[in-house]
Design goal:
Length: about 400
């Protein structure tokens, strides 16, 4: 074969069949967990691809020797769906080929010819072989060298370059069928959703809470959502905003999760009338956590998640976080505790939650709040204030008016 037979721009013959090869970080896997992890990942891939491509799209997902192999049309929607599956480290469009050196070499050469056709002759290339078993006998290095030589016989000018090569012939040797790929696309990483316990995220409409929810979702925990609404003192805009944010987070959920809404304005008003203004912010938050603990039972959640970060506002000092936690039986996860606002903004922009989050709307937290809330509150002080209003009655009232909303994925 001569390069001149493959001038850039000439249509090529029949395209070879392609599959999509998904990789995950094996280090995260401990023995017996592996099958379970793979099954969950495969299931999530199937669900998100079906959602993106339609229920009738030809989608097949198969587990094979520490890889997941997907048969599906390769479209921008496919790539977008795969970019939303937590647990994928990277993926490649790959050409399946019989596990024989000649067949693999022919496929690798074909891929290179396609590359030359589309982008011109590269300056450098490398062969990168990985074997899952002893199939083929030779070591990965021997295969790299052998295929490299065969490629250079066809394209004599091509330099081998192990780092930063312009063209990579990636080879995955498997018993029976092997794969040849040329481009690795980075996945979102993390763990497959469903491999960790369900959580309930307190979501406000601000910048922090949606990012916090995505952080734990990426660690494998499905998250339902809880919003405290300042009605009747706050309008509907904030609810639209919260729903928009939930829609974005739900795009990463194989099964979209519900949003619970609790009307909280009337409760805040009565607490405000009965208590010391400096302590209100912390008192409201203790009420939120009590109600959230009960809502978590309805949502089957094992812990709460908030967007708090250390020292960001008066209620987020160590002392105040401690007394707020005291009102919660369930553990409270705060994935953003060590994040700066700049870092949170960067994350929000990357996830696409930034725009809805900065839309103006009043959060109930600022209702009836003092301009200078107490920075270091003590439990006895708060308990004295809480004896001035019927805590338990308000919790029950909040729960009886809690509403469950379905929010589809965006
Ligand atoms: P955010 O950007 O998420 O609004 P924030 O920096 O404004 O956070 P606060 O308003 O003090 O901080 O809220 C801290 C956390 O408490 C939020 O991240 C969220 O988890 C929870 N929270 C606050 N307001 C509400 C609300 N109205 N409904 C549900 N959760 C809330
Ligand atoms: Mg807020």
């Amino acid at each position: 074969v001569n390069l001149l037979q493959y001038p850039t721009g000439t249509p090529l013959a029949v395209p070879a069949p392609r599959t999509i090869l998904l990789r995950y970080h094996e280090v995260a896997l401990k023995g017996a967990n592996r099958g379970w992890f793979e099954r969950m990942l495969a299931q999530n891939v199937r669900k998100l691809l079906k959602r993106a491509l339609g229920p009738d799209a030809p989608v097949e997902v198969e587990r094979r020797h520490s890889r997941i192999v997907v048969q599906a049309p390769w479209t921008p929607a496919t790539q977008q769906a795969l970019d939303r599956v937590f647990g994928i480290a990277s993926y490649s469009v790959a050409r399946p080929v019989a596990t024989e050196l000649d067949a693999i070499a022919a496929a690798a050469l074909d891929e290179l010819k396609l590359h030359v056709h589309d982008h011109g002759l590269p300056k450098s290339f490398r062969v990168s072989t990985r074997r899952s078993d002893k199939a083929l006998g030779n070591s990965s290095m021997e295969i790299d060298r052998e295929l490299g030589q065969r490629i250079q016989r066809v394209f004599p000018g091509l330099q081998v370059k192990l780092k930063g090569a312009e063209f990579t012939a990636g080879i995955e040797i498997r018993e029976g069928t092997s794969f040849v790929w040329t481009r690795k696309i980075r996945g979102k990483g993390g763990l497959p959703v469903g491999t960790n316990s369900r959580l309930l995220a307190l979501i406000s409409g601000g910048l922090d809470s949606p990012v916090a929810a995505l952080k734990v979702l990426r660690r494998g925990s499905p998250v339902a959502f809880l919003h405290f609404h300042g009605a009747p003192f706050v309008g509907e805009e904030v609810l639209e905003k919260v729903e928009d944010l939930v829609r974005i987070v739900n795009a990463y959920h194989p099964v979209p999760q519900p949003l619970f809404v609790v009307p909280f304005g009337k409760i805040q008003e009565r607490i405000a009338l009965a208590t010391n203004p400096k302590l209100r912010t912390v008192l409201y938050r203790r009420m939120m956590f009590r109600i959230a603990n009960r809502a978590a039972e309805v949502a089957h959640a094992e812990a709460l998640v908030t967007g708090e970060s250390l020292g960001q506002v008066a209620s987020q000092t160590v002392e105040n976080l401690a007394v707020i936690d005291e009102a919660s039986t369930l553990p409270v996860l705060r994935p953003l505790i060590g994040f700066d606002k700049d870092e949170i903004i960067e994350e929000a922009q990357a996830w696409g939650t930034y725009e809805p989050s900065i839309r103006p709307a009043v959060d109930c937290c600022t209702l009836f709040a003092d301009r200078y809330p107490a920075v270091r509150t003590q439990l006895p002080q708060l308990q004295a204030e809480e004896s001035r209003f019927p805590v338990q009655e308000y919790v029950e009232e909040a729960l009886s008016s809690m509403e469950r909303r379905k929010v589809p994925a965006r």
